[in-house]
Design goal:
Blueprint (H helix, E strand, L loop, with lengths): L5 E2 L9 H4 L15 E2 L2 H13 L2 H8 L35 E4 L5 E4 L11 H6 L6 E4 L11 E4 L14 E4 L1 E3 L3 E3 L5 H9 L5 H11 L11 E2 L2 H19 L17 E4 L8 E4 L4 E4 L2 E4 L3 H5 L1 E2 L2 E2 H10 L17 H33 E3 L1 H6 L31
Antiparallel strand pairs: 1-17, 2-4, 3-4, 5-6, 5-7, 8-9, 10-17, 11-14, 12-13, 13-14, 15-16
Helix pairs in contact: 6-7, 7-10
Length: 407
């Protein structure tokens, strides 16, 4: 294997993530924004208002689409105990809200009821468990700064902040961390090259550290040097740990040296403006003050959009009066401030490692295992079966109107 590398790799010879992790789905299409909120109490209040409304008002509040109306008959989402009787006839109890990643770095809550979601991607719900990680490939935006690949433990919607389509790639094709979502033969080939037996988390960590955006999709250079690979895997594990925020047994992110953001002045009940002072490292949330906020956190972008600004907009944007979207907390909850402090920490840590990540990517792209190499080794092209969801038949799923679904 030592000889199967190509120097001066052309950009189109860098492997695509689509070739390394071949099974993916398009982003979820919710169809109605009121089923997502930054806190579960709001979702329960919206549900209560919906089911208490008369037929005509309920129809308007629901916001019907071609895919979903209150009369739609659909199966339950895998792993969720929600109603399958038509919503117009028997809404049932409020579904238990679940954690949901609504765009990059924004952990919110979702009503996981298939009757409410236009395109829920049930194949993702079927493999979502305590072992799963989701790699979210960001849509390509020419010249935009920010990472090309992010990782979450909660189910993501996969939406790009700039509105460009990306892809969601589960790390495993089956529940329980079984059957890695990798091109057949890839791990043995790379293991021989780098001198040890690789696992799926190694490849994911490397991809997070080295991924490059391109019009064809996310490209992942595979280095010639085992030392570069080892450094990239170590860096990628750290970046994933920061992004997971303590999920999967990890530690909550903290800035080094005890330097962390504090609330210097309380956030008001209904802040409408966000501002940043780079000299004082102060983030102003209305009349509230948070510091120190490193410039890297404030400037951190994905798809050309600043993440802190988008996070704030998701919680303060005006909604149509009388709609379910307009229902929310009467005042800024303390939990939101805590979540903002953690978001600042996450973005600051990622921004601080960006120069290291960029340098490693450049080294990996200079010489490595190319697409031609993978074709010669029989790894590419990827078999069609590897691009389809695995058949998961170890449990029953409730279909429309209480019938058992046939998988």
């Amino acid at each position: 294997m030592r000889g199967v590398t190509d120097d001066d790799v052309r950009p189109d010879e860098l492997p695509l993530l689509d070739e390394l992790m071949p099974w993916s789905t398009a982003p979820l299409r919710l169809g109605r924004s009121w089923i997502v909120a930054p806190d579960p109490r709001t979702l329960r209040a919206r549900w209560d208002r919906l089911v208490a409304a008369g037929d005509a008002e309920r129809e308007a509040l629901f916001r019907p689409s071609r895919a979903r109306t209150p009369s739609s008959s659909v199966a339950a989402l895998p792993g969720q105990r929600t109603g399958t009787v038509r919503l117009a006839r028997e809404p049932g109890r409020c579904p238990q809200p679940v954690r949901f990643v609504h765009g990059p770095f924004d952990e919110q809550w979702l009503l996981p009821d298939h009757r409410l979601i236009d395109t829920a991607r049930p194949e993702l719900w079927r493999v979502a468990d305590d072992h799963q990680l989701f790699a979210v490939e960001q849509g390509y935006v020419p010249g935009a700064a920010g990472p090309a690949l992010l990782v979450t433990a909660a189910l993501p919607d996969g939406r790009s902040p700039a509105g460009r389509p990306g892809r969601i790639r589960p790390l495993y094709r089956r529940p329980g961390g079984l059957e890695p979502n990798l091109a057949p033969g890839l791990l043995p080939l790379l293991g021989e090259r780098y001198g040890y037996e690789l696992g799926a988390p190694d490849l994911l960590a490397w991809a997070v550290a080295a991924a490059l955006p391109s019009p064809a999709g996310c490209r992942v250079p595979l280095p010639a040097d085992p030392g570069v690979w080892a450094a990239g895997v170590a860096l990628g594990r750290e970046l994933i740990g920061v992004q997971l925020r303590g999920a999967r047994g990890g530690e909550r992110p903290r800035l080094p040296g005890g330097r962390r953001p504090y609330v210097r002045a309380a956030v008001p009940a209904r802040p409408t403006e966000l501002a940043y002072d780079p000299e004082e490292e102060v983030l102003s949330v209305g009349e509230g003050r948070i510091s120190p906020v490193p410039a890297g956190a404030w400037e951190f972008e994905v798809g050309g959009v600043r993440m802190i600004e988008q996070w704030f907009a998701h919680r303060t944007a005006a909604a149509e009066p009388g709609s379910l979207e307009a229902m929310g907390p009467a005042a800024w909850p303390q939990e939101w401030t805590s979540e903002l402090l953690e978001l600042i920490t996450v973005l600051a840590l990622l921004a601080a490692r960006e120069p290291e990540r960029a340098a490693l990517t450049a080294r990996a792209a200079a010489a490595g295992v190319t697409r031609s190499t993978l074709r010669k080794a029989g790894v590419l092209p990827v078999p069609d079966g590897a691009r389809r969801p695995a058949s998961v038949l170890d449990h029953q799923e409730e279909g429309p109107e209480g019938q058992f679904a046939l998988l």
